[in-house]
Amino acid sequence: MPYAKLWSKIPVTIAFSLLITAGSSLLAATAEELIERQTGNNPFSGQFCDYTSFQASVVGDRLLMFGGNLTINKGANSKEKRELEPGFQFFSMLLNETFQATASVSEYLRREPDPAAEKRIASMRDGGAYSYNGDIYFYGGQQLFNAGDDDLIYKCTPTSRDIVWNSAAINGNVRRTITKGASVDASSENKGFYFGGQSIIAKGSDDAQADRVLNGTLSNNLIVVSFSSGKQEFANITASASRSRPLTQSNLLFVPAGKEGILVNLGGDDGTGDGAWEDLQVFDIGSSTWFNQRTRGNLTSGNSRYPGPGTCSVVQSDGDNHFIYVYGGSNRAPGQSQLAILTIPTFQWFTVSKRSYPSKVNAQCQLVGERQMLILGGRSSNGRGDCGGNSFLEILDISSLDIVSIFPNSNPFTPPPLVRTASNSSNPLDGWTDPELQGLYEVQYQTFAQRNRESKSEKGPIIGGVVGGVAGVIILGIIAVFFIMRSHRKKSTRDVKEAVAEVKRNSAAQPFLGHPSPAFTSGEYPNAYPHGHPPSQSYKDDYIVEAPANPAPVELPPSTPAMRPIELPS
């Protein structure tokens, strides 16, 4: 049957329904394709295996992950050869969405668009990422291709639509050529820190060449970047080898203690296989001073004395007590303790062993909310050649110490029972290794913004006092001048009144008050007033010479207007 005839037999309402349904399906397919293309619902070209050596940073409600090594399985099963996916790596997770970590990685992990011309930062291993005022700044790391200038770093500005890439200059005798160090973003201080690592040689702009790591070169420099509106300042603080030995792949944490906060550096590798576990390296930001602090507690698990390098960590505070959670490590095999907790100020270690804890090396840890620690990426430490059984994301509840699947959790943080007893003390169990550190630690911490507001509020009364004091002196001066003038004014008025009264008293005896002539000068003042009266003097009773009695005129003669009585002020 021809389509026209068939269409004519379909009722109009049904025809419209079919058109609407078909159009909706087409629009839905187009929208779904657009969303998939924009958000990357299929972010990998093969089966996900592991993701390591990348940087993670939270901006607003997004967790962004840059660079690193992504290993995938391009075969049909886990026995196929694993391959490193070359090129650009840039992923994101929305932190305002509810999801399950057990679901497919494509349900919550999105691949961001390739910025094409700016692949340098997205091809970087290790390094540090620092967020300030909506921008993310990158420092250090080994670039796999398109190696850049020594004096430039890169930054990006995530927006609701895209990612804007720019470069930023380095100053303060600092170079970007360092990798495998420890970084921390101290956002409450508007600062970022990068400690230790190995030196690298930049190989230029040739895409075929990568930065080369100089093995055996360990640095104990602390790079500090301070952010302010429109600029960033870099500083290089060389640590004393006796207080801060060089380390690679350690964990640097910002602890809100002391006047401007302290940094705790732990773990890593010092070239012998050991790191900073029993003796921690502590940096006081306010005084730019390194200290050592002895810890107590047993970290041994299985055959390994320490967790080793490749750990990740977060810090959470409960009043004056701080808890550092350290996960994974290259020395921890499946079945061994993957979690260690350090309490401050007791500086005591605790280890936690649970079968639900997967083994992780070179993962990234981020604290989201008050009690959920996201363990991102990493690889299994069991040495398997396939993709392993670990998922990209594990969520640790740092209060219950359980691996959970639902994100997010808005409940407040409470210290786990394991560490509550240790948090009752306000001093290290073995005392302060550096007594000066005790004094610094006991100072109540305030954020940069709080100190800035307090400084302004303190300057206000000082400036107000100075201004008020000056104003007070001026006011007192004005009052003094007013009373002096008023006194003179009253005196002048009184003199005028007396003069007027005297004129009235003598008006009956004097025809007028003219200039005294020699004929009327008393013998006591023979030549006292040759010109009429003393200069700048008012007439006084003593100076008036009596004249013969005459009838008083009705008014003063017009020839003597200057001697008319002065009007009283109103």
TrEMBL record:
Keywords: Membrane, Signal, Transmembrane, Transmembrane helix. Residues 1-31 form the signal peptide. It comes from the Eukaryota. SUPFAM superfamilies: Galactose oxidase, central domain. Residues 511-570 are annotated as: Disordered. The keyword Signal applies. The chain crosses the membrane at residues 462-484. InterPro entries: Gal_Oxase/kelch_b-propeller, Kelch-typ_b-propeller. Residues 550-560 have a biased composition (Pro residues). This is Uncharacterized protein. It comes from Arthrobotrys oligospora (strain ATCC 24927 / CBS 115.81 / DSM 1491).
